[in-house]
Design a protein that fits this description.
Blueprint (H helix, E strand, L loop, with lengths): L8 H10 L7 H13 L2 H17 L1 E2 L6 E2 L5 H4 L4 E8 L2 H8 L6 E5 L17 H9 L5 E4 L5 H14 L5 E4 L15 H9 L2 E2 L8
Parallel strand pairs: 3-4, 3-5, 5-6
Antiparallel strand pairs: 1-2, 6-7
Length: 209
Amino acid sequence: MITEKYSSKLLENAVNEFSRLPGIGKKTALRLVLYLLKKDKSEVNSFCESLTSLKENMKYCKICHNISDTEICDICSQKSRHSDIICVVENIRDVMAIENTHQFNGLYHVLGGIISPMDGIGPSELEINSLIERVKKGKISEIILALSTTMEGDTTNFYIYKKLKDSSVKISTLSRGVSIGNELEYTDEITLGRSIKNRQDFESSISIS
């Protein structure tokens, strides 16, 4: 294995920090660091301050757990949205992907992940109990399970279904326009939009023994 040699320890440290980011190798990290070195000090300071501010001031919505600047996010605060319909997603990126389709006008519930025993993630590590509490309040008519069509996503869907099936809430899932194994953020907007619009009853999408 060839070890990169740097003319500056400061440069090496910066490259090492950038390379910690997902999908960023040493070569890409070096390119980013050299790019920042060419920028004015004020621009670099602004870049650093935005990250520091994000880390120090970012909140999670008390209702849906989406990233927010305030206690209640902008989506949950919108009176024009259908507050009786909740779309359950894995993470913040999925909220953004669905919002970009302009085909959904309800609210969200961000689980913060999906059940994955291999990664040590069980139901208690996710925001499932808070979802059940939202349903118990009696103001929800439909839950849309919009998790990735992977084994872990299907496991999480089924777990939530079992927890809510005795309630009066309709439980639906995306139509299979989203290919099996795909994550929502990588699905094109038209396909994802159609999958939301043409969603199907969850019970009809599974085989229950």
